[in-house]
Design brief:
Length: 160
């Protein structure tokens, strides 16, 4: 737990609720959440004058996520044009879960609890930490952007 408090990191997330998603938007849950995450990440990189590499845990959605990545790179998105994405996103790589990529393992500790917190679901409680401050620790790490608004810059939820 101390590691999550002392490390210097920020959380940027894209969350899409599954209920009726495909029927209303014509897209799958993984590609909509990924698109939202990429847009937030690209905005963050522009704000901090950085560049980023996309690393994804391989799954059955690899093709959909690759298509979404290149769609943003060539057509742009809600917050920026294609050149904006091309300036800050450098590549996309998929790793098999069995390869035990350290970055993806850390994300496992963050993604589910953040999603649960934002969607008002039962909080994640790590075993042995019944009264854990885990959700509040993660909430403090959400990127708030130049306007101090975590739901504009750090976590965006697509609602139906």
């Amino acid at each position: 737990m101390r590691l999550l408090v002392t490390l210097d990191y920020i959380i940027i997330a894209g969350i899409a609720e599954e209920k009726g998603l495909y029927q209303h938007y014509g897209v799958s849950l993984p590609s909509l959440a990924f698109k939202t995450l990429l847009q937030n990440f690209a905005r963050f990189l522009h704000i901090v004058n950085g560049v980023g590499h996309i690393i994804v845990e391989s799954s059955t959605a690899d093709r959909l996520l690759t298509e979404e990545y290149y769609r943003l790179m060539f057509a742009g998105g809600k917050f920026m044009n294609a050149k904006g994405f091309q300036d800050v996103l450098k590549d996309i790589t998929f790793y098999e879960k069995s390869k035990l990529n350290e970055g993806l393992q850390v994300v496992d500790f963050i993604a589910n609890p953040i999603s649960r917190m934002i969607c008002n679901l039962t909080p994640f409680k790590p075993l042995g930490f019944a009264d854990s401050p885990y959700p509040s620790i993660l909430a403090q790490k959400i990127y708030k952007g130049p306007t101090n608004d975590p739901y504009e810059y750090g976590v965006r939820k697509v609602m139906i």
